[in-house]
Amino acid sequence: MTPFHQLTATSLRGELISMADYAGKVILVVNTASHCGFTPQYAGLEALYKKYAARGFIVLGFPCNQFGNQEPGGADQIAQTCHINYGVSFPMFGKVAVNGAATHPLFRYLKDELPGVLGGRIKWNFTKFLIGRDGKPLKRFAPFTPPEKMETAILAALGN
Fold this sequence. Notes:
Layout: E1 8-10, E2 16-18, E3 26-32, H1 41-52, E4 57-63, H2 75-86, H3 105-113, E5 128-131, E6 137-141, H4 151-158
Parallel strand pairs: 3-4
Antiparallel strand pairs: 1-2, 3-5, 5-6
């Protein structure tokens, strides 16, 4: 089992989820926020998820309040923004830290594997990490990269 698949995270509903549940899938991990200029990316992420889910693609959203207090609400408010405002049907997780001493182990691992231009820090909400079917991190995308600009890399990872 890869290091990624050994990690766990708590869902928005409070359930502990193993990343091993997603073994064999191409995964896009995104740190999200409900009150960010990039929040409309939820719609594009959902479109990619719907388009490629049957081929083994999944998006995993991780709300984060570390950038400009743009995710101040609790689980119910986050769910409302995601599901009602943007029709999000991909899995959403509980709020996490992506930088600093309290960084969630999943983001610590992803930043170690794909450090980016800030030497391992995440710059802002909607930083995205593409993970291959084997659990190996493949590519990191900047917050300003719209979901549709990741489609080529997703298709390459899907292998079809």
